[in-house]
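Hi R.,

Here's the chain you asked about this morning:
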Amino acid sequence: MLKHLVDLRDFCYVFLKKKMGESYAEQGYAFRFMVLLCGYYMALWVLIAMLQYKAGIPVSPLEKDNFIFQTIFATLAFLPYHFFIKYLIRRIAIFPIDKDMSASKYKLLMRKAILTLATSFALWVLIALGVDKLVPFF
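And here is the predicted structure, written out as tokens:
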């Protein structure tokens, strides 16, 4: 798992280096890494929302129509993920970034990144269908 995360981090760095230059890659690879893995965190929220729906817990009118409340809640819901990704980046920082990656390894890591993103979206669908079909109404 750690090797997979290191490969994704290296891909994000090299991708940005090729597109925008090395100085931009130094600053922006962490954000790309965060975006690449955000689907798994969002799958957790899909699970919570599906369980709330199946349990029949209504959404309060404050949450439905109040933009400020929605913005505050979204920010607070995002913070644990942000801190977790920062922790992961510090944890894998002991492995040096492969700045001079070969073209064949770059293509392999691009496929790995696309597969990682596609798997997270598939997880959303599987969670939604699984909870809908397997969990009865409360």
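One quick note: The first helix runs from residue 2 to 20.

Cheers,
M.
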